[in-house]
Design goal:
- This protein is an alpha/beta fold.
- It has a single domain, classed as TIM Barrel (Alpha-Beta Barrel), CATH 3.20.20.
- It is 44% helix and 17% strand.
- The protein has an eight-stranded parallel beta barrel, surrounded by four helices.
- Helix 1 runs parallel beside helix 2, helix 3 packs parallel to helix 5 and helix 7 runs parallel beside helix 9.
Length: 301
């Protein structure tokens, strides 16, 4: 099994906004070689001048710090309805936006694009006919992006199962259903699993058991988001000695479960969102280093 350790740039959101800052942290301070670049750091809506400048800078810094941009993904600012928006004009905007994000990804060397699947409105979720229609239009949009991404040379797309029905994939059963609906896409559409997601209201305990998700989908998840999850509440917690004592995400158990799932190749991505208040603000860099040290005992690449 080929496992690699990398990081999602969510940690840098509004804190380390320049490529020169977050690339140095990733490649030099943390010694990581793989990045999932979020649109928070490089959004197509910034315009061609800024986007082109940032692409050039990132590509220079990749060489300087020996870092690969493996994946490009939506982020905190773009956690919106996109393909599931009830307004047709907005949906068309986001289809075009995703195609431009593909272009950015290809320009910085990413082999894939990832995102949450979409987000239904509250009222669409409550209307059974609308719920079915919105799911179908969202599936169609993903297939359109897959055609475009294939033409541009990407290898696959992936989507992230979430924790409530409006955001899709909240249970193992729902995730299976969506995957079946995507299986005839122009490119493989796989999963970006998150060890802290799942519907807490589900009667099936497996739906909030990270190891059940890894066992079920590990072979179809080339990307896995890692954060510590405390036994009594979720959150984007780092892997520090304090959180690890109480947390349910155990590196050795994660890796053993992936082996049992039939996983052959996966990029494990640290995904943290540090709160903009003390003491979290002052500890961010130290907590990043502690987290990498914890996982380096199990993942050498």
């Amino acid at each position: 099994m080929n496992l690699k350790l990398g990081i999602n740039t969510g940690f840098a959101l509004n804190r380390f906004p320049l490529p020169e800052e977050w690339m140095k942290i990733v490649g030099e301070d943390l010694g990581l070689r793989y990045v999932q670049l979020t649109a928070d750091m490089l959004n197509p809506a910034l315009g061609d001048v800024i986007v082109s400048d940032y692409i050039a800078r990132i590509n220079r810094l990749k060489i300087k710090y020996n870092v690969t941009i493996d994946s490009i993904m939506t982020g905190a600012f773009t956690r919106v309805n996109h393909f599931s928006h009830p307004d047709a004009g907005q949906r068309l905007y986001w289809i075009d936006w995703f195609k431009r994000l593909v272009d950015i990804g290809v320009a910085v060397g990413a082999t894939n694009l990832s995102s949450h699947f979409g987000i239904m409105s509250y009222y669409d979720l409550k209307d059974q006919l609308r719920r079915k229609q919105v799911l179908e239009q969202t599936i169609a949009a993903w297939k359109e992006i897959a055609i475009y991404a294939k033409l541009k040379g990407m290898q696959y797309l992936s989507w992230e199962p979430m924790s409530i029905a409006r955001e899709y994939g909240e249970t193992i059963q729902e995730t299976r259903k969506i995957q079946r609906m995507l299986n005839d896409s122009a490119l493989p559409i796989k999963l970006c699993l998150d060890v802290d997601h799942g519907d807490v209201s589900s009667p099936n305990p497996d739906d909030t058991n990270p190891y059940a998700w890894l066992r079920e989908f590990g072979k179809d998840a080339p990307l896995i988001h890692l954060k510590q999850s405390l036994k009594d509440k979720s959150g984007h917690w780092p892997f520090t000695p304090e959180t690890n004592r109480e947390g349910k995400i155990i590196a050795e158990k994660v890796i053993k479960t992936l082996e049992e799932s039939g996983c052959k190749d996966s990029l494990l991505l640290l995904e943290f969102s540090f709160r903009e208040r003390e003491p979290f603000e002052s500890r961010a860099l130290g907590d990043l280093k502690s987290s990498v040290e914890y996982w380096r005992d199990f993942v050498s690449n």
